[in-house]
Amino acid sequence: MVDDDWLTTNRENWDDRVRIHAASDFYDLPGFRAGGSPLRAFERDELGDVAGKRLLHLQCHMGQDTLSWGRLGAEVTGLDFSARAVEQARELAAEVGLADRARFVVSDVYEAGAALGGERFDIVYTGLGALVWLPDLTRWAEVVAGLLAERGVLYLVDFHPVTDMLADEDGGTVRHDYFATEPLRAEYAHTYTDGPPLEKTGSVQFFHPLGEIVTALAAAGLVIEFLHEHPFTIFARYPVLTESEPGIYGYPAGQPRVPLMFSVRARRP
Asked: Is beta strand 75-80 parallel, antiparallel or unpaired with respect to 54-58?
């Protein structure tokens, strides 16, 4: 059962994270200002040329991924429920000279259609760690479909739900039910980056099997073009993982593997 307080709890938590994330080595805003990009090579390859396209990034946080697509030529809009994150994103856009091709809007994902005045986009992008904060994927997929122009595409990249089953300390012990439906209400003293403790420590997360995600998109009328499962991720979640290239972690040669990330592209007919 999902109580109505999940949105307020999570918004307060993410508002608090902004001050820590903006100063963290993990997000490396100085490096981004100098031209760095957090987008992975496979994302650029799978989505393809975005030049001249209208791209909406849902749950954009501080806007680095959004602005990276802008640097590749897209006309970008970032949307996030944290007003502090959007403020930081707007400042960052101005600092890197993209204020004329990037805008940022404060809104809950489920209210995105109204917040954007019914506007439609060539691309809707959703990045890593986003879906776990949404309780209703059927409604999410319907919102996405409503935001896409004719022949527009959703490009979704996220951590594979299998990874939430396994214990972080060894990556091999099954600790959590893959099909669990109850939300996880937790208190975490720190966010996932370096930096000081949080003041708003509460969060509510929701876990979605891969089949639920793909089925929600299909039910919303989108045509799945591909579902790719990847044997790598962006941090050393389990001790067995090794860094194969800067910022990319996977299993050593000969080690049995599970999928660590996945990507989906789905098109509105």
From this structure: parallel
With a CB cutoff of 8 Å and minimum separation 6, the contacts of 75 are 52, 53, 54, 55, 101
pLDDT tens-digit readout, 181-190: 999 999 999 9
Output the six-digit token pair for 33.
């200002």
- Integer Cα distance of 80 and 105 in angstroms: 7
Beta bridge partners of 153: 123, 267
Tell me if residue 50 falls in helix, strand or coil: coil
User: What Rg do the C-alpha atoms of the chain give, in angstroms?
Assistant: 18
CA count, 13 A, side-chain hemisphere, 78: 32
Q: List residues bridging with 249 in a β-sheet.
A: 233, 243
Q: Which residue is associated with the tokens 């370096």?
A: 194
Domains and CATH numbers, the chain: 38-178+209-267 (3.40.50.150)
**In terms of pTM, does the model score above 0.90?**
yes
How far from the centroid of its chain's Cα atoms is residue 2's Cα? Answer: 21
Ranges of beta strands (E only) in the chain are 54-58, 75-80, 102-106, 121-126, 148-159, 184-187, 202-205, 223-230, 232-233, 242-245, 248-250, 261-267
List Cβ neighbours of 191 (8 Å cut-off, separation of 6 or more): 17, 20, 21, 198
Q: Is 61 helix (H, G, I), strand (E, B) or coil?
A: coil
User: Tens digit of pLDDT for each residue in 209-245?
Assistant: 999 999 999 999 999 999 999 999 999 999 999 999 9
| Residue 172 DSSP label | -
Strand-pair partners of 245: 248
Query: What's the rounded Cα separation, in Å, for the pair 132 and 151?
Result: 27
| Residue showing tokens 């890593």 | 128
Helix axes 64-71, 83-95, angle to 10 degrees: 30
